[in-house]
Specification:
six-stranded parallel sheet, 13 helices, alpha/beta, disordered N terminus
Length: 231
């Protein structure tokens, strides 16, 4: 079990977090209740006029978001007491407000980077990194505030081998087509450029989406960049 966060050692990081989120509404939805996340969330909300909401339930979190007419920074774990953090992120991203979402991975590291990005996560951070006070949480929050994306370096290390597997799983032709998909070409345009039948190009694209565990061409392009398949 990871060591609990020491408040004295964490004072400087806490001040940075408070500064980052002071002007933002924050929803923290985690299960089980993680000491490090809960402690940071509670203390970062001190002296802030913006909402600080807490839950471990997917359904309750949806209700809380619906009760406030403003964008939130959403911090959630991949598992909730009655659902998944990915479902909460999908719900948040489907709303009219530009909610920004950080997913904390506690133990289900089998969740793929493309899968989480396709759900709409803006930042991915490992719980272990938070407990070790690596600075990943601060970088993740900075990404949310600045409209950027962030992947915990420790997570990228965990997925290095799986990334290699993804490269080996796609054929040379599929890698070539993924590059064209990322460039914005349609199936017909890909077929014309590679001298393929349109149905063949379509089938290759569908196979690529399935292998990368995404549903859209845009998500496939993002996954290709993250996995180093698209240059």
């Amino acid at each position: 079990m990871a060591a609990a966060m020491n408040p004295l050692q964490s004072l400087n990081k806490l001040l940075q977090i408070k500064q980052l989120v002071r002007s933002h509404a924050v929803l923290t939805c985690v299960y089980p209740q993680l000491f490090a996340i809960q402690w940071v969330a509670e203390h970062s909300g001190m002296e802030s006029p913006n909402p600080r909401l807490f839950s471990d339930s997917f359904e309750k979190a949806k209700l809380l978001l619906g009760q406030h007419d403003q964008p939130f920074l959403v911090i959630t774990t991949e598992r909730l007491i009655d659902g998944s953090g990915l479902d909460l992120i999908r719900h948040a991203k489907a709303q009219t407000h530009p909610h920004r979402c950080l997913l904390v991975l506690t133990h289900n590291h089998h969740l793929s980077i493309p899968q989480t990005l396709a759900a709409g996560a803006d930042a991915l951070v490992l719980e272990d990194s938070i407990n070790r006070q690596s600075g990943a949480l601060i970088h993740g929050l900075q990404a949310l505030v600045n409209g950027q994306t962030y992947l915990d370096p420790a997570l990228e290390a965990c997925h290095r081998q799986s990334s290699t597997d993804e490269i080996e799983a796609l054929s040379a032709r599929q890698l070539e087509i993924l590059q064209l998909v990322a460039a914005g070409l349609s199936n017909r345009e890909i077929a014309e450029q590679l001298h393929l039948a349109p149905t063949t190009a379509r089938d290759h694209v569908q196979a690529i989406l399935k292998r990368l565990q995404v549903k859209t061409r845009g998500a496939a392009a993002v996954a290709g960049v993250r996995l180093g398949l698209v240059h």
